């Protein structure tokens, strides 16, 4: 089946096709899933190289369990987010890196007229602040407000109640708002 | 000073979330190549042994090897209906042929008389 013809096929169906020997299905799945997993891992780890390793490992685990995948029991993305979180947590436990020291520089003073630079600076500042949250708060906030998942799915990924997800995201956002408030001007937020 | 100004507002935080989403790192060509190589290697590792074993060899493995088959043959000889197969113990192909969870003696006749692929 051609790569573009698979755009309407669900992740779960593609996985079954892959398990049955369809190489194109693996390419379609990789194109769909690798960016999401990489983005999520990067926001959890704040390290590009580590995030790439986690992405490769998470998808390797998906290839291995493909023959045993039972359709209708879970979403592929839910399973992958959970695996990614576990892999990230393992790495964070091994190496508690100092994000303050490694933080990329943000432009001083008033933002330039270049909107691309402003967006990049804002994204980097957010990543720095996310690194200051607990692992669970960071995971909940990223899944909710960047990956755009709904609370019931986040609860399934994190194996906690919906109420616990709401509590984690609320506390995480308050912490972010406080940490980033100090950098308001350099992030381009002005009164009036 | 106004205490509110020491924290970002909900709207300002949402702006940062959107920026982060827009600036998400994209997988490099090298990473994608590694991922696809893993997928291909895993597929190759699965397909080759199954092709050598054939269907009966795959079934033998799903039944737990020769020990499992000897027990099964005894049960079949006494005319028992056995529901022993969790869905993931068999390949998709096998589960289609055997009709799912239950195996009857009609489907596995005279196991002791059948020579299995080595």
Largest β-sheet summary of chain B: none
SS class of chain A:
mainly alpha
Number of strands of chain A: 0
The N- to C-terminal Cα distance of chain A equals 55 Å
Strand content of chain B: under 5%
Low-confidence stretches of chain A: 99-111
Alpha-carbon distance between the two ends of chain B:
83 Å
* Mean pLDDT across all amino acids of chain B: 65
- Poorly predicted tracts of residues of chain B: 80-118
- Largest β sheet strand count, sense and barrel closure of chain A: none
Order of helices and strands of chain B: HHHH
CA radius of gyration of chain A is: 19 Å
Helix content of chain A: 55-70%
Quaternary state of this entry equals heterodimer
Alpha plus pi helix count of chain B: 4
Form type of chain A: globular
Measured by DSSP, the beta-strand proportion of chain A falls in under 5%
Mean pLDDT of chain A: 87
| Most extensive chain-chain interface | A-B, 51 and 38 residues
Shape of chain B: elongated
Outline the fold blueprint.
The complex is a heterodimer of chains A (192) and B (118).
Chain A: H1 11-19, H2 23-45, H3 48-65, H4 76-94, H5 99-102, H6 115-131, H7 135-145, H8 151-158, H9 162-181
Chain B: H1 10-22, H2 29-62, H3 65-77, H4 92-98
Salient structural properties:
heterodimer, A: 192 residues, mainly alpha, B: 118 residues, 4 helices, disordered C terminus
Describe this entry's structure for a reader.
The complex is a heterodimer of chains A (192) and B (118). Chain A has 192 residues and is mainly alpha-helical. Chain A contains nine helices and no strands. Chain A has helices at residues 11-19, 23-45, 48-65, 76-94, 99-102, 115-131, 135-145, 151-158, 162-181. In chain A, helix 2 (23-45) packs antiparallel against helix 3 and helix 8 (151-158) packs across helix 9. Mean pLDDT of chain A is 87; it is low at 99-111. Chain B has 118 residues and is an all-alpha fold. In chain B, 14% of the residues are buried. Helix content of chain B is 57%, strand content 0%. Chain A binds chain B through residues 16, 18-21, 23, 26-27, 30-31, 34-35, 38-39, 42-43, 48, 51-52, 55-56, 59-60, 63-64, 66-68, 70, 119-120, 122-127, 145-146, 148, 173, 176-178, 180-182, 184, 187, 189, 191, and chain B through 5-10, 12-17, 19-28, 31-32, 34-36, 38-40, 42-43, 46-47, 87-88, 91-92.
């Amino acid at each position: 089946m051609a790569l573009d013809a698979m755009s309407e096929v669900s992740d779960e169906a593609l996985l079954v096709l892959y398990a049955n020997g369809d190489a194109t299905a693996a390419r379609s799945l990789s194109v769909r899933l690798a960016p999401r997993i990489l983005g999520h891992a990067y926001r959890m780890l704040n390290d590009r190289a580590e995030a790439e390793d986690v992405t490769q490992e998470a998808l390797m685990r998906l290839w291995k369990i493909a023959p045993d995948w039972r359709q209708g029991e879970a979403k592929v993305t839910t399973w992958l987010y959970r695996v990614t979180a576990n892999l990230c947590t393992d790495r964070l436990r091994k190496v508690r890196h100092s994000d303050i020291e490694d933080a990329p520089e943000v432009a001083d003073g008033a933002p330039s007229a270049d909107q691309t630079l402003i967006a990049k600076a804002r994204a980097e500042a957010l990543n720095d602040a996310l690194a200051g949250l607990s692992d669970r708060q960071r995971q909940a906030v990223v899944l909710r407000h960047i990956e755009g998942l709904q609370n019931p799915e986040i609860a399934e990924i994190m194996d906690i109640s919906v109420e616990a997800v709401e509590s984690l995201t609320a506390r995480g956002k308050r912490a972010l708002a406080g940490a980033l408030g100090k950098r308001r001007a350099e992030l381009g937020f002005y009164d009036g | 000073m106004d205490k509110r100004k020491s924290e970002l507002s909900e709207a300002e935080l949402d702006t940062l979330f959107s920026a982060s989403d827009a600036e998400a790192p994209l997988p490099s060509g090298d990473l994608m190549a590694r991922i696809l190589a893993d997928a291909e290697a895993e597929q190759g590792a699965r397909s080759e042994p199954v092709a050598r074993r054939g269907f009966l060899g795959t079934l033998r493995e799903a039944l737990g090897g020769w020990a499992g088959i000897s027990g099964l043959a005894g049960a079949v000889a006494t005319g028992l209906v056995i529901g022993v197969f969790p869905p993931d113990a068999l390949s998709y192909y096998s589960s289609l042929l055997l009709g799912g969870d239950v195996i009857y003696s009609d489907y596995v006749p005279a196991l002791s008389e059948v020579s299995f692929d080595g």
